[in-house]
Amino acid sequence: MLPCLLFSACSGLRYIPANEKLYTGSKVKINYPEKPRNAAALQSELEGVIRPKPNASFLGLRPKLYFWHLGVGKTKGLGKFLADKLGEPPVLLSQVKIAATRGLMTNRLQNRGYFHAAVTHEVKSDEKTAQVNYTATTGTVYKIKEVNFPAGDSAVLVAIRGTQAGSLLKVGDPYNLDVLTQERVRIDASLKNQGFYYFTPDILLFAVDSTLHNQVTVDVQVKAAAPARALRPYWLNNVKLNTNFVLTDTIRRQPILFQKYQYFPDERMFRARAITKAVFLTPDSLFRQRRRDQTLSRLMSLGTFRFVEIRFNPAAAGDSAGRARLDADVRMTQLKKKSLRAELQLVNKTNDFTGPGLNVSFRNRSALRGAEQLIITGTAAYEIQTRAPANNESRSNSGAISTDFGINAQLIVPRLISPNLPLLDVKLPNSDFQPRTTFGAGVRYVTRTGYFSTANFSLNYGYSWKTKITNEQELRPIDVTYSAFSSEPAFDEVLAAKQFLRTAFQQQFILGSSYRYTYNQQLLEQRRQQIFFQGRLEFSGNVANALNGLSTKREGSEYYTIAGQRFAQYSKLDLELREYYRISPNPNSGNRIVGRLQVGIGLPYGNSAGGTLPYLRQYGIGGPNSVRAYAAREVGPGIYHPSGSSINNYYDQVGDLRLEGNVEYRQDLFPYVKGAVFMDAGNIWLVNEDPSRPGGKFNSSTFLKQLAVGAGAGIRIDVQFFVIRFDYAIPLRAPYGTPESTTGRLNLAIGYPF
């Protein structure tokens, strides 16, 4: 008896008023003479006009109706609270506007070219519930027989006819109101780039003749009542550039005249030349909306302005040729020129080193009065390893002390400092994004007390540019690193026992050059499927090796040097592919399936023949952004499994090759809270055999069997600008077979793993 009462309460049927029925939803059936290609889309569109929506149910239960009933007749108390938070009133059959819904469905069908469509309905009732089913009979779809653009020799009619080649209206296509709307927007955009500043899409009309047998003719027309100013092109007259605009600014100042621009207020902050390079609105040129949008984007991407606004007003008079003119006022509100930021952190690394850290950053947003950004960053950290890495208690690293000090300087110049290249105009006149030239220098000093210390000096010079919102490229012709190393007796024993470590940690130059290409669809938020691809190619030591080879020939195990120091020679290729697929058609939904594949190949040769990549360039696997069931650099290379209690165990699990794959399902749980389940797999390998790391060399016939595999679940606190991630993962497989321990690992991290 009790289960029956509970079912009756949770089904919600006992709360339906007398002589009423609970509306449980509708079904839509469409009868076509010939099923079209967009049948699924049309089905969804007709279902989308049905109102109201029925009460939510699961397996016949409607608990929201039960909670709603708890608050009936109450103004306060627990019942009222539960009703407001968890309940919803019943949706009754009497509330369903059947005639209006049929009318909306008929209208949607006519908009798709089914001019003789008819919609009927049927109500299917039970004792307490009712369902309304609709049947649409489409008839034959009308197709476009011909499209006529306007005749005439006026400027606007000539411009409209000039867009005909790109028309979305195609003879033989079904009539579709949405396509007509898109055609108006397309023509308007084209005219906006031909000077017609005041033209708008609603000035256009489409006269459709449907009296033909299942065919229509479409005539593109201009409204007779269109304002005169919308029908003529405009040219730019005065272009004012105010680089220090504020709302309270009422002072009238004489501008600086530079290349026909009126430049305000002066050049103490920005040289006029630097700003005009990012402005594509030229005095005495035809107004083009494309150039207006490009100017806004370029000025904002300088990184020196908080707001940029462009206002156009008709000039007092036209020019001698009778052309209408516009005055343009470009208003730029500056960010603070100089800023200083300090961050005190508690560092907790994946290798269990914990301690305080300090980051101090100074920024000058116009260091040389050309919107060049100078960024100087200093870092300091003092860390103690609190315990041995998880699942490897034999590693007696606990108590190791690490100190880290560094300073890095970067000058970002908002242009490409280079002569024109055969395949690239360095001014990028058609790009919305400001190209950059970057100069960088830095030094970092790291010590492991009682073991070793390293000092890394870096110097780089490169370019970055974007031709589209989804494409970015970076070229670094110069990327030089010098690594200085000194060790204590305790670490000397390790180096003596393992040749590869001695090679990896030796003092050497890395004379690198690199190219990176990124394709990123994540910026296209409306897409359900988004692709991210990044490829990076790096070379080091080739030029130096060739120049040395012209004057000196190596013999045996000899190597070339620069200033008495050996330099590394290698080639390195990194590929990363990600796919994001949103389960829901709602662009705001966070329910996604996400996958990532990473491939890395590093080949030492020439001056590094028989060895490995420099330690700074080697790959590692594990940690919160990799195979999360293992600690950072706890996996590989190959089936190599370190044992014992020497200090080197953390350092020798690196390699020259990497293969890693991840798949993750992300689900919205509550506001700002998301959940995930995931699986990771990957490993690293060596190019050359290393006797001290048996099983570490890559073998094409066995590498897939050597992947470490882990799986787990996580919670993410996502407040849009900040993400805290808790991922718990357990190892399912180790490269050498069954994991020594199946104890899980909790990963705390900032941001998503990919």
Automatic annotation (TrEMBL):
PANTHER family: SORTING AND ASSEMBLY MACHINERY SAMM50 PROTEIN FAMILY MEMBER (PTHR12815), TRANSLOCATION AND ASSEMBLY MODULE SUBUNIT TAMA (PTHR12815:SF47). This is BamA/TamA family outer membrane protein. Its main location: membrane. It holds the Pfam family Omp85. Keywords: Cell outer membrane, Membrane, Signal, Transmembrane. The keyword Transmembrane helix does not apply. InterPro entries: Bac_surfAg_D15 (IPR000184), D15-like (IPR039910). Gene3D superfamilies: membrane protein fhac: a member of the omp85/tpsb transporter family. It is found in: Membrane.
